[in-house]
Hints:
- The chain is of the alpha+beta class.
- The protein has 21 helices and 20 strands.
- The chain has an 18-stranded mixed beta sheet, sandwiched between helices. Strands 7-14 form a two-stranded parallel ribbon.
- A hairpin with a 2-residue loop joins strand 19 and strand 20.
- Helix 4 packs parallel to helix 5.
- The radius of gyration is 23 Å and the shape is globular.
- The two termini are about 15 Å apart.
Amino acid sequence: MLNQRRSVAGLMSARYSLSGLSGLSGLSGLSGLLVLLVLLTGCAGSLPPATHSGAETAVLTDDSFLSSQSRQRLADANGQSGYYLLDSGQDAFLYRAAMIEAAEHRIDAQYYIWNRDDSGLHLAGRLLLAADRGVKVRLLLDDFNAEGIGELFASLDTHPNIHIRIFNPARNRSGWGRWVSFLMDFQRINRRMHNKTFVVDGTAGIVGGRNIGDEYFGFDESRYFRDRDVLALGPVVEGMADNFQAYWSSPWAYPASDLYTSMPTGTELAETLEGLRQQAIAQPRLPISAPTGAEQGRSELTSVFSRMTIAQGELVFDPPPEHMDAPSETPKRSALALQRLAQTATREILIESAYLILAREQLQALGANERPQLEVAALTNSLASNDLVTNHAGYARWRPYMLEQGIDIYELKPDAEACRQWLSDDAFCATGEVSLHSKSVVFDRSTLVVGSFNVNLRSIYLNGETVLIIHSVDLAERVAEDVRLAMAPGNSWEVALDEDGELQWRSGEAVFTSEPTVHWWRRAKSGFLSWLPIEKYL
């Protein structure tokens, strides 16, 4: 029964994928339905590993605009790299768009989610236009959220300069059969590629927590995912390229043409691609004007490169699993890197994590109670701001213990006052909701970590993750102050235990004894799910 619960939780934790089932009264009905579908769809099973024709690698020259900028900006850097924080969604979108326009040889993009919305279609269309002018484009997409855009990407894959692979896919590509595939092949499907990197000409790259979609760039009308990326130039980008290549070459990365075998051809295919080109050129639905053409792209990048911080840094990534059925009981490479930094911190650790789950083993390794001089403070989502009740429930299960172990916890308000500072959109901030999606940690205000790594058990044991470690007092201080701002009473509730060991939420003079500003039914769902020992799979 526990395995069945774990399977259902794994499915429910997919962003948006089962939103239509939120009205079910409990897990039992969903479990029964899925079990029945398994019995009725016995032919759904595992895929064999993909066979690639050879170890394709990026062949780059040293004559691109970006390589020239790297030599110029880093001439006296002694092997260090340049970094620029992308704290606003608009900047994150604009500089991705600018990098596409400035590309001359190759674009390698790797994402967990790429939405079929205005920003997702625009960037896909600009990738197509880049391929038209001779740029080699490789796109690697995790399969768990690929249902809405997989067929479009398979159409792009027909372009001679575009190659698209899907990581760890289900055998069935749509509908209930897809979810049955997930359930029947749970051990394999539960290993996801959560890494997010965007590398151009092997010299400049973006790494961080953002996926590709309107809600990540501040274009959505109802929800904004507060997030953080870093634009990097120089030697550290080689690590991003190695990360991409490791997953691209994995036997679990399947060519899109192998998965989507009934694609339109001829006139219909040509019309699909031409429509994508024209939409990317006209930008009819984008709320801001994106750079188009090499001159505009280079101009945007030249400006941001002049404002970079030069520092030492390293890129740490989890390699893809060699065997999907191998035990997942050992912390992965990115988790171990963070653990080493935490154990050497002496004054302060600031954590900003959309999903926060630290259980007994991780908290004992941190040893906050044994180091009274060390302050550990964490910002995460409240039940009101969290887009996934399941993930909040896993956090709520361990929240009292985290507080007992000396961690200060702050939960973001969906109507945070800092919305106008983060988004500069009064209309949205008056009616929309803010969620936390960033994954950053600051150690002693001297070392900054930004990446795809949520401080939770799934990132520690199951997902492939990428973290960029930057040794810069300047950047660490800036992010620390930003996190502390988000922890202020106007933006978050401070969670604490009262004299009787009961939870309370404080904001200024206001004190709540239950999860603030949410309906009782949402509290009830979270409370019920928090009893299930499934936090590793959330």
